[in-house]
Design brief:
The chain contains ten helices and 18 strands. It has about 475 residues and is α/β, with parallel strands linked by helices.
Length: about 475
């Protein structure tokens, strides 16, 4: 079924109202004093991979933060890692950046467009020191794409999308850097331990300083390959599926790193004026059907299992905690929210909303009523993507994680009564489905074509001393 004819008479007025309601707020409520910001992004962590959704998971440090903070139950990200990271650091939907497609590969001669001002650049202007630890995955073929050229004062981690957790290699190259230089001393040490160590060190270096800091901790866990020190496996029964046991051990190792960060904040006296945000970058990969249960779908799809992120906000600055925040929040919102928190008076015009008031005060509703899960156009398949509007979700053309016998087409779900996307309501509420499809069609001309050039062998580590390195592409 497809809606190609005119919308019902009510649709134009409805659409106008919806668009007016969805204009991002420009006002900002600055904090009394600029707080430190710690943003922790987990990799491929599923809905069912955390203790507050699954009591078999051992993550006591994060559980304590949830139990004394704000649990995010309607926090959305992109279906894949590069798109989510792009949205977080720009405040823009990936389809405005050409980043709505597949993640950047290590041989891909492009990156996150340099004419966009990233969040750390804006925070630096407000007096913050800015630090990035972990996975970059926004391009590195030219130095201009790399973290130290995009607003970060320090960088410790890897440029690509994945690698082995102990030897920090992928295919035939090494990928681990301290600032610009390859750090071979990291070889043999588990990445999450290294990242935790560096985060603690950065926090300790700020002890006694009046300068606020922004720490973007993009952890490698729980992305494949599944690797974890044996000590973390002891928390899980030996008869558990081997891969599932490894993944849950990786969650516990991740949790330990989070706990170390919190303890360092307390030990240095920075905790009381720090806001900690935690989120996954996309849903779990769906291993054994468990990672996102009971949500439908997995990483790379626009179903809830691929896009609804586990997350929380924790800070003494929040009011009336603990509580669950059920307002809509999208990863593009963090750009304006964190700028407002940092004291910015004039927020940029982007796809995000300033959510700080609704996060800090339970009496304030989320300013967001709609968002695009993704939007794209294929010459053969037509429009692809999904749209959320209040309780409703409209999906067009999704090909992944379909039920047996199900074909790509149109879906409409009421997520309040059907969070697992079982009952397609397109035939039941055709006018609403048409109106939501029209919203997507109206936005379609703004889609930037995918920035997916062919792989370039010039980037192969064999040309760069065995290390994945910048210097083999031109920035447009």
């Amino acid at each position: 079924m497809s809606f190609k004819g005119p919308c019902p008479a009510v649709a134009p007025a409805l659409l106008a109202l919806l668009w007016l309601s969805a204009v991002p707020a420009s006002a900002s409520a600055a904090a009394d004093s600029a707080p430190n910001i710690v943003f922790i992004l987990a990799d491929d962590l599923g809905w069912n991979d955390v203790s507050w959704h699954n009591d078999q998971v051992v993550s006591p440090n994060m559980q304590q933060l949830v139990d004394t903070g704000v649990q995010l139950e309607q926090s959305y990200v992109q279906p894949l890692c590069t798109p989510s990271r792009s949205a977080f650091l720009t405040g823009l939907y990936p389809f405005r950046l050409g980043r709505q497609g597949r993640p950047l590969g290590s041989h891909t001669p492009t990156g996150l467009a340099v004419h966009h001002t990233l969040l750390p650049e804006r925070l630096s202007r407000l007096g913050y020191s800015t630090h990035m630890i972990g996975k970059w995955h926004l391009g590195f073929c030219d130095w201009a794409y790399t973290p130290l050229e995009r607003g970060f004062d320090t960088f410790y981690g890897y440029y690509g999308g994945f690698e082995f957790h102990f030897n920090h290699t992928v295919t035939n190259g090494y990928d681990f850097r301290d600032q610009r230089e390859p750090d071979f001393t990291a070889n043999g040490t588990y990445a999450t331990h290294l990242f935790g160590d560096r985060a603690v060190r950065i926090i300790e270096e700020h002890q006694g300083s009046d300068q606020p800091f922004f720490l973007y901790l993009a952890l490698q866990n729980v992305h494949k390959p599944l690797e974890v020190p044996d000590e973390y496996l002891a928390h899980y029964p030996e008869d558990l599926d081997e891969d599932r046991r490894l993944l849950l051990g990786m969650v516990t190792a991740l949790d330990e790193a989070v706990g170390r960060v919190v303890q360092a904040l307390k030990d240095t006296g920075r905790y009381d004026n720090t806001v900690i945000v935690f989120s996954s970058d996309n849903g779990g990969v769906g291993m054994n059907g468990e990672s996102n249960r009971p949500l439908r779908g997995n990483k790379s799809s626009v179903w809830e299992g691929g896009t609804r992120a586990v997350g929380f906000v924790h800070s003494p600055l929040l009011q009336e905690t603990p509580r669950v925040h059920s307002g809509l929040l999208h990863i593009t919102d963090w750009y304006n929210t964190l700028l407002a928190l940092a004291g910015e008076s004039f927020l940029p015009d982007n796809d995000g909303f300033n959510q700080w008031d609704s996060l800090v005060d339970p009496s304030v509703e989320s300013p967001r009523i709609m968002f695009f899960y993704n939007l794209d156009y294929d010459p053969e398949k037509g429009m692809l993507g999904a749209l959320r509007l209040n309780d409703y979700k409209f999906v067009v053309g999704e090909e992944r994680d379909l039920d047996p016998g199900e074909e790509p087409g149109l879906w409409l779900f009421n997520l309040t009564v059907d969070p697992n996307e079982i009952i397609n309501m397109v035939e039941v509420q055709p006018a609403l489905a048409m109106a939501m499809e029209m919203l997507m069609l109206e936005e379609l001309p703004n889609v930037v074509p995918r920035d997916e050039p062919d792989n370039d062998p010039a980037g192969d580590p064999s040309n760069w001393g065995g290390v994945w390195s910048p210097g083999w592409c031109d920035v447009p």
